[in-house]
Specification:
alpha/beta, 2 domains, Rossmann fold, Nucleotidyltransferase, domain 5, six-stranded mixed sheet, 17 helices, disordered C terminus
């Protein structure tokens, strides 16, 4: 097997790591990366493992022996700070340069390496690593024909493309390699709300024409749902062309120890979150809020808002206030809904008519004026606000003759009632991507005593869905109150 660094020749990734024309100058401390190097050997079908490498394989995969043939799909479930983004970039560059895909493509056909990141920011970070690898030496620098912000074209005709998970134009390409970075978190991103399986199903057919194509998912685990979880359940510990590699941070990054990480983070994060973030264990205390199919069914495609209808007897408004001072903080949101009889029946559907969001930083006086104007259009003189929100909005809306009252329900109770209506197909939602993203980002968290808290994931937002669900619930309530029996924690 050739290892002279020439593109188009067969070369193992471990050879490239130790080659002057490869990545030798990057990996100056080989011991730090030795667990990753074992994974890379296994990825390419190496049965010649040292005793300690075989022991690591058994520990991380549940397999008793190494695969003898190259893997077609691999999913690495690893803790934070374990070097995942570096390995994503290494794989992208190695296979783009030495994949040898030209023999599987016709003239004019461009094979691609696709790297899909969680969001735009993470995609930029990965692209930074890729460009760093391609600038390590004269040979790699010479491979670059054209470098753009989201793609790099190499002189061998291969293109490396890095996109966020919100990307939609993923069909119709010839794909030598697909890398899914932090895929456990895609559905919880504000920018995305993309189903991980959607991108996987859309791009995978593009890999079939290239014999040695490869799909790799690398992620810290999260809830027991989605593509990563389904692959883990189906393939962990089972020999075949799909490899599952699960390892805590300190196994993959030798500069960190279990003792130090536990001392620094266990008390702060709590056992469940620490177990996922650093021990690479899927969280048992979190479930998804609603099936994506249920959410999609409720969204009326291309409906951005409904204008005021004189036939509607009453509109209901719910507000989630925010001071709007800090960039990246909570938005101020307002939603308006109404109940509607289903034609030729006595059933009702609860319709979201309008949703407003002020993203911080913003001027409070301007936002209050906008909210008052919206309420006037829909003939709304009463607003219910989030139970735990700040109360200044009531005073500021007094000059507009709008009364503000606090909700009699906690946010978790609102979400539980809303879920009941959603599961009964009694809700019509607007086609607003950020709203969908926030619904999919909600999670059920099991608390002590069997109580359940429904909330967004850490670092996420739920301002839009809080107002939307609140207004939907208001429009659904009869004077005698709801009869839904629930148990939640606020």
């Amino acid at each position: 097997m050739a290892s002279d660094g020439q593109p188009g020749r067969e070369m193992r990734i471990i050879d490239a790591v130790q080659s002057d024309k490869g990545f030798k100058s990057y990996f100056t401390s080989l011991r730090t990366w030795e667990s990753w190097f074992t994974f890379l050997k296994v990825l390419q079908g190496s049965s010649k493992l040292k005793p300690q490498e075989l022991e690591l394989l058994q520990e991380c995969t549940g397999l008793t022996e190494a695969p003898k043939e190259p893997i077609k799909e691999a999913y690495v479930i690893a803790g934070r700070r374990s070097g995942k983004s570096t390995i994503c970039a290494l794989l992208a560059v190695f296979y783009a340069v030495w994949g040898g895909w030209e023999k599987y493509t016709s003239k004019g056909e461009k094979p691609r390496v696709f790297v899909i990141g969680t969001n735009k920011a993470q995609s930029r970070i990965i692209m930074g690593y890729i460009k760093a690898f391609l600038s390590l030496n004269t040979f790699l620098k010479g491979m670059v024909r054209k470098s753009l912000s989201e793609s790099i074209e190499l002189r061998n005709g291969v293109e490396i493309v890095v996109k966020p998970a919100s990307w939609r134009s993923s069909r119709g390409f010839t794909v030598g390699m697909l890398i899914l970075e932090e895929l456990a978190f895609w559905r919880f991103e504000e920018e995305s709300a993309t189903r991980d399986k959607e991108i996987y199903v859309a791009i995978k057919p593009g890999t079939t024409s290239i014999k040695n194509s490869l799909i790799v998912g690398i992620s810290t685990p999260f809830a027991r749902q989605g593509l990563l979880w389904s692959k883990f359940r189906k393939h962990y510990g089972k020999p075949g062309s799909t490899l599952i590699w699960q390892a805590p941070t300190w196994t993959m990054n030798k500069t960190l120890t279990e003792h130090d990480l536990e001392k620094e983070y266990l008390e702060t994060l709590g056992e469940a979150e620490y177990g996922a973030e650093y021990c690479a264990k899927f969280r048992e205390d979190i479930e998804g809020y609603l099936p994506l199919e249920t959410i999609d069914k409720a969204i009326v495609k291309n409906r951005m808002f409904l204008p005021p209808d004189p036939e509607v007897e009453r509109y209901y408004a719910f507000c989630d206030p925010s001071e709007g001072v800090r960039k990246g903080g909570d938005s101020m949101t307002l939603a308006i809904s109404h109940p509607e009889l289903v034609e030729d029946t006595e059933d009702k559907v609860y319709v979201l008519d309008y949703i407003f969001e002020a993203i911080p930083p913003f001027n409070n006086n301007t936002v209050i004026s906008e909210i008052a104007l919206i309420c006037k259009k829909y003939n709304v003189s009463e607003i219910v606000q989030d139970r735990h929100a700040i109360g200044w909005i009531s005073k500021d809306l007094e000059p507009y003759d709008i009364i503000v009252e606090a909700s009699d329900k906690t946010k978790s109770e609102i979400y539980e009632y809303f879920a009941v209506l959603m599961n009964k197909n009694e809700v019509e939602l607007l086609d607003e991507p950020r709203l969908k993203s926030q619904i999919t980002g909600l999670q059920r968290i099991l608390k002590s005593g069997g109580l359940v808290k429904i909330d967004h994931y850490r670092g996420g937002h739920d301002d839009l869905i809080n107002s939307a669900a609140g207004s939907i619930i208001l429009s659904s309530e009869e004077k005698q109150g709801s009869t839904v029996d629930i148990m939640v924690w606020g």
